[in-house]
Automatic annotation (TrEMBL):
Signal peptide: none
Domain Pyruvate carboxyltransferase: 6-273
Enzyme class: lyase
Keyword Lyase annotated: yes
Highest classification ranks of the organism: Bacteria, Pseudomonadati, Pseudomonadota, Betaproteobacteria, Burkholderiales
E.C. designation(s): 4.1.3.4
Name the UniProt record assigns to this protein: hydroxymethylglutaryl-CoA lyase
Domain of life: Bacteria
Pathway: Metabolic intermediate metabolism; (S)-3-hydroxy-3-methylglutaryl-CoA degradation; acetoacetate from (S)-3-hydroxy-3-methylglutaryl-CoA: step 1/1
Species: Trinickia terrae
GO molecular function: hydroxymethylglutaryl-CoA lyase activity; metal ion binding
PROSITE patterns, alphabetized: HMG_COA_LYASE, PYR_CT
One GO biological process term: L-leucine catabolic process
Record field: catalytic activity: (3S)-3-hydroxy-3-methylglutaryl-CoA = acetoacetate + acetyl-CoA
Keywords from the UniProt entry: Lyase, Metal-binding
Length: 298
C-alpha cells in the first residue's frame, strides 16, 4: 500500500536557481525561502556553500541564510561539497547539510572535479564535523537513473554509493534522476534495490522532468513505499552538464498528485501556486508547472 503521508522537500531556491545565468537578487532569494516555509514546507533547500567559480549564482548563500526568518520546525538545508563549505554552513546556522556524489564516474569528475572514491573520502570529515555540531546530514546520489556521459548506470553502482553514504552516517539519502531520463520500471528496480541497503523511510526521490516522466516515477516510488520527494516550485531549473535537461518536477504538480491520492503533505497548494507566479515573474522565466498554470488561469 502507498504511504498516507509524505514529506516534500522544496529545492527551488537551490536546484531551481543555481543555473540561472542572470544573478537573482539576494532579496528575491530570501523572499522565496520565507514564502515557501510559510506555505508549510518542513524542509527548504535554501543555498549552496560551493565554489563561486563553479556556481556563481549561489555565491550569496551566507547572505540568504542570514536574511531569512527562521520558523520553528522548518529545516533549512544547504549544499556542502567540502570542509570549507561546511564551515560556511555552520556559520550560517543551517539545519542540515547536503553532500552530493554521483553513481557515475564521469559525472563525478564534471560536477565536483574528483572520482567517486575521492569524493567519499572528502565527505568523511564533513560528515564527522556535522555530527559533532548536531547537524542533520543528507547524501544525494546523482545520476541514479542515467548519466549524460556514460548513459546507463547499473543499479549496483547506485546501491554502492548508497552503502558508502550510509556508512558515513547520512540521516537521509536522495536517489536523484539528475537528467530526468528514468522511467517507472527502472525507478521501481532502483528503489527496490536501495531499500535493501538503507531504511526506506529515510530515502527520497529527486526527479528532474526532462522526459516528462517525473510524476510517473514518483508514483512508482510511492508503490515502493517511498515517503520523501523533492520538487521545485514552478519547475524551476536545468542542468549545465546535460543539454536540454529541465528542472526538478514542479512542486505544484506533485502537490496536486498527492492531494488527488489523498496523501497528506501539510502544504497549502494555493500558496505554492502564488509563489510559483512570484518567482517566475521575478526572474523572467515561464512557469512550467502544469497545475500551477491551470490554477493561475482559473
Ligand atoms: P576544485 O576547483 O577542484 O577545488 O573544486 P579547489 O579546492 O581547488 O577550489 C577551487 C576554488 O574554489 C578555490 O578558490 C577555493 O577556495 C574555492 P581560489 O583559491 O582559486 O580563489 N572553494 C570554495 N569557495 C567557497 N565555498 C566552498 C569552496 N570550495 C572551494 N565550499 C569543488 C571542487 C567541489 C569545490 C567544486 O567543484 C564545486 O564547488 N562544485 C560544486 C558543484 C555544484 O554545486 N553542483 C551543483 C549541485 S549538485 C546538483 O545539482 C545535483 C543534485 O541536485 C542532485 C541531482 O539532481 O543529481 C543535488
Ligand atoms: Mg537536482
Amino acid at each position: 500500500s502507498i504511504p498516507s503521508a509524505v514529506k516534500i522537500v522544496e529545492v527551488g531556491p537551490r536546484d531551481g536557481l543555481q543555473n540561472e545565468k542572470e544573478f537573482v537578487s539576494t532579496a528575491v532569494k530570501i523572499e522565496l525561502v520565507n514564502r515557501l516555509a510559510a506555505a508549510g514546507f518542513r524542509n527548504v533547500e535554501s543555498a549552496s556553500f560551493v565554489s563561486p567559480k563553479w556556481v556563481p549564482q549561489m555565491a550569496d548563500g551566507a547572505e540568504v541564510m542570514n536574511g531569512i526568518e527562521r520558523r520553528a520546525g522548518t529545516i533549512y538545508s544547504v549544499l556542502t561539497p567540502n570542509l570549507k563549505g561546511f564551515e560556511g554552513a555552520l556559520a550560517a546556522r543551517a539545519g542540515e547539510i547536503v553532500i552530493f556524489g554521483a553513481a557515475s564516474e564521469a559525472f563525478s569528475q564534471k560536477n565536483i572535479n574528483c572520482s567517486i572514491a575521492e569524493s567519499i573520502a572528502r565527505f568523511e570529515p564533513v560528515v564527522a564535523a556535522a555530527k559533532e555540531h548536531g547537524l542533520r546530514v543528507r547524501g544525494s546520489v546523482s545520476c541514479s537513473l542515467g548519466c549524460p556521459y556514460q548513459g546507463e548506470v547499473p543499479v549496483a553502482s547506485v546501491v554502492d554509493v548508497v552503502e558508502r553514504f550510509a556508512a558515513l552516517g547520512c540521516d537521509e539519502i536522495d536517489i536523484a534522476d539528475t537528467i530526468g531520463v528514468g522511467t517507472p520500471k527502472r525507478t521501481r528496480e532502483v528503489f527496490s534495490a536501495v531499500t535493501q541497503a538503507f531504511p526506506r523511510e529515510r530515502l527520497s526521490g529527486h526527479f528532474h522532468d526532462t522526459y516528462g516522466q517525473a510524476l510517473a516515477n514518483i508514483y512508482a516510488a510511492l508503490l515502493e513505499g517511498i515517503e520523501i520527494f523533492h520538487a521545485s516550485v514552478a519547475g524551476l531549473g536545468g542542468c549545465p552538464y546535460a543539454k536540454g535537461a529541465t528542472g526538478n518536477v514542479a512542486t505544484e504538480d506533485v502537490l496536486y498528485l498527492m492531494n488527488g491520492l489523498g496523501i497528506e503533505t501539510g502544504i497549502d497548494l494555493d500558496q505554492v501556486v502564488a509563489i510559483g507566479d512570484f518567482i517566475s515573474t521575478s526572474i523572467g522565466r515561464p512557469n512550467v508547472s502544469r497545475a500551477g498554470k491551470a490554477l493561475l488561469a482559473k
